[in-house]
Prior knowledge:
The chain is mostly helical.
Amino acid sequence: xxxxxxxxxxxxxxxxxxxxxxxxxxxxxxxxxxxxxxxxxxxxxxxxxxxxxxxxxxxxxxxxxxxxxxxxxxxxxxxxxxxxxxxxxxxxxxxxxxxxxxxxxxxxxxxxxxxxxxxxxxxxxxxxxxxxxxxxxxxxxxxxxxxxxxxxxxxxxxxxxxxxxxxxxxxxxxxxxxxxxxxxxxxxxxxxxxxxxxxxxxxxxxxxxxxxxxxxxxxxxxxxxxxxxxxxxxxxxxxxxxxxxxxxxxxxxxxxxxxxxxxxxxxxxxxxxxxxxxxxxxxxxxxxxxxxxxxxxxxxxxxxxxxxxxxxxxxxxxxxxxxxxxxxxxxxxxxxxxxxxxxxxxxxxxxxxxxxxxxxxxxxxxxxxxx
Length: 371
């Protein structure tokens, strides 16, 4: 499975800029502990500095950019950091998410990887995430992190080293095994050889960037000098509350109950493709800022018509608004208003959101299952 860095990162940085700048980092016992958490020897930093393989003139610009991104991702970082730590994975793997997506749930790559952890569709499904017309749980900050943890644990079990697991996350297990076979070694300094090129350039840059960010963001003196010492304590408190809400509920009703705008609510819930929870009889996890939880408990009530729900209908050959309205027992006007249709023309595979009554939907589902 091949997991790529997001298109956003690719656009923002050239391949050279993605390489970490270790020259600006101080080697000490603390730095050694950070490297050791990845299974990397402390001498690795000194070797990179001795090679002087990285230019320093872009270091400050990159540091400022990553610092800004880390600071602006306050909502997700604490809970991600806590989940990683509880799973027994080095907390520095938080920066793998930084390298993959900049902590953006909206991140999407040309290879169709999505979410904070940039999971590919097949891999995500194998890890238990739902991807369908209504929901893409790769964009769910909690469930995608659970899946990424499961996958990283699997990679660690195969490779035996956390730095090898990170490499495999980027280029795939098969590609890493091929590199190890060619290099006849699992040593990081051998695998990252710029002349032999055992690994793809992206992967060489990727692992160096993760290590660099781990060292830099754990550098107390550097953070103190920039009044960013508070970043060291990210993860010490809960920032998101998870709510179990009935299927079919409008997101606008949830937002109103939490005292939020719809757009603000969607920032935490990019997993939902539409402005309503998927139809059916299940409950879905919806996330709100923790400080909104008390207000929500006092003000949220289920919609006035709990039997009303929305379904997604894909137009088939020969179907019209008339036939669709009869199928779902809903008026043509309701369908047109819901989908902002200015006329009655439809195209094959066009997707329509249809408001229905739950008991009618159950009958429709049963009829379709019998055919």
